[in-house]
Amino acid sequence: MIKTFWGWHDQQLPDGTLVWTSPSGQTYVTAPGSALLFPSLCVPTGTLTPPDPHATRLRCVDRAAMMPKRRRTRAQNRANYVATQRRHNLVTRQAAQHAASGGPAPPGDGDEPPSFDDEPPPF
Question: What's the pTM value of the predicted model, to 2 decimals?
Answer without folding.
Answer: 0.33
